[in-house]
Amino acid sequence: MDFTVEPEFQKKLDWMKDFVENKVRPLEFIYDYDKDAAYDIKNKPLRKIIKRLQQEVKEQGLWAAHLPPHLGGKGFGAVKLTYINEMFGTSAFGPVIFGCQGPDTGNMEILAMFGTEEQKARYLQPVLDGDMFSTFAMTEPQGGSDPTNLRCVARRDGDDWVITGDKWFASNANHAEFMIVMTATDPDAPPHSRATMFIVPTDAPGFEIVRNIGFWTDSPNSGGHPWIRFNDVRVPDSARLGPVGEGFKVAQSRLGGGRLHHAQRTIGLVKHLIDMMAERAVSRFSGGKPIAEKQAVQTMIAESYIEYMQFRLLVLYTAWMFDQQEEHGAQGRKMISAIKAAMAKIAQDVTVRAVHLHGSHGLSNIMHFGELMAVALHEGAADGVTELHLANVSKLLLREYTPRLDSNLPSETTFIKKVWAEKQLKPILDELGLTFEEGHADTEKNPPVEKYNLKPVSL
Topology of 248-398 in CATH? Predict the structure, then answer.
């Protein structure tokens, strides 16, 4: 495994650090209304600023770094993408400025893999160029983390499909020009053969935003995660992505990479929180001494840093697996679920510590902790709840083990292991002309081991 950063690439990262801190992060303190200003295509002056900064990114060869060269990226690979994503993970505007924003990144992958040439020209290229936003509509109000429970259906009508039903938390739908929608086209088929994907323009007759929904910190009826409804929206069969009934296969092409990108950006966010905690610890005095000398404060900062380093290495290892094209195998899927669960936990834990360490400032609305806490909790629900990913890790891990059927005693039972150890070591002792007794060995005095193999009783 190689996590090396070459000198030339390090120069790119150094440029990013300065650029993000001094040109990207300032945007969020001026244009952070409703927390989705980065996607507001109606704000023409802000779009001009964003375009200006995007041009600097393109000149550095860092635009859409997640993409392979044939789609306009540089083919950096997932490990280098980790270093890039963590750099702008500190800013809500970072992904848009660098052309790596969700849900567009995943939609780009779907369109690149399953789109027709016409679909790529009409939808993929404008998104690649940063001139168009999209959304991905899969989650439903009643569905939660179970995408097999789809009630939004698409029924064939001649050369068209008619889509009816609701979608929920369709991020960016209020600013998107089109969406990729996962529908049930055969509700009676096996669960993973029911769904089909379609491209739906947001100006299609019958498309409705029922209500804008945001996080805790957003004003009522605002925010960038709308509840949307398809009132018999009609699309041609040419809007279909992939074969009928293979929507799950299409969806999987985007979900793994999207989860990795989220985790990569979370690395940068957590480091930023640690920087805030450290600054506060050495600056705030209590009892005539900086609170950095308080053991409780030291513990919070040390635990946060250790967890940050562990998480960063976990993400780098998973990124390395992506570079080996192993993300779709059992090991890759296990690691994707692992980083997804770890991401939610560290984001929540470190944010809470940072709030606590900042005291009244942390609880006030003159800081951004409320927004950061809402985002952290969002990480535990989006793209599958944490409990689901933990269960997936356990399921995939346990496949690597076989049950002990010859006994109901654990294989590490000491008196059974003593007999095994004696058998393993005896050839070496014989070669050296030694006995166990001479070395005062604690061997099993009551073999044979067969009598200890108490086989399980069938119920």
Answer: Butyryl-CoA Dehydrogenase, subunit A; domain 3 (1.20.140)
